[in-house]
TrEMBL record:
Coiled coil: none
Family affiliation: Belongs to the complex I 24 kDa subunit family.
Cofactor(s) the protein needs: [2Fe-2S] cluster
The UniProt record lists the keyword Metal-binding: yes
Pfam families reported in the protein's UniProt record: 2Fe-2S_thioredx
Cofactor note: Binds 1 [2Fe-2S] cluster.
Superkingdom as given in the UniProt entry: Bacteria
Keywords for this protein: 2Fe-2S, Iron, Iron-sulfur, Metal-binding
SUPFAM superfamilies per the UniProt record, alphabetical: Thioredoxin-like
Entry-linked Gene3D superfamilies: Glutaredoxin, NADH-quinone oxidoreductase subunit E
Organism: Anaeromicrobium sediminis
Lineage, broadest ranks: Bacteria, Bacillati, Bacillota, Clostridia, Peptostreptococcales
A Gene Ontology molecular function term of the record: 2 iron, 2 sulfur cluster binding
InterPro entries documented for this protein: NADP_DH_HndA-like, NuoE-like, NuoE_dom, NuoE_N, Thioredoxin-like_sf
The protein, known as: NAD(P)H-dependent oxidoreductase subunit E
Amino acid sequence: MKEDKNLHDYEFTNDQYSQLDEIIDKYGKSQKNLIPMLEKIQQILGFIPISIQERIAQKTGISENDIYGVVSFYSYFTMKPRARHRIQLCLGTACYVKGGKEIAETIESMLNIKQGESTPDGRFTYEEARCFGTCGLAPVMSIDGNVYGKVKVEDLEEILSQYK
Ligand code: FES
């Protein structure tokens, strides 16, 4: 994954780099501030590609591996730009056994993308997630933070059509 060349190929404006450096200065070099610092950076840039992780490492002295480890571990963080709408489908145990897998396959075929990818028109990013803590509503899906419970395959078209 780290060798994925596409993850290096993003360009940012000088203004974005200045904002980035301000955030890094504000949070300092302590590893315990790494997660809040990355959250802030993602709010500004939208995602945290490898090139940005390298810059953070250079300026803070925190190792690139540690930064990469955090960004790749938490599903909140992304190394690729996201589309306008973010679909997160829970594939935790309860959701999986109550039809989550079929919903996953249907979303992938409707949008013609795989989990972790975005549609070429920039409309949807589709991600699989772990338990949302609302297993009683399984299977559960969230779009831009709006939670849909007891989702059925036949509901998907109607739900997705609400997001342009
Ligand atoms: S397993 Fe899906 S919400 Fe808990």
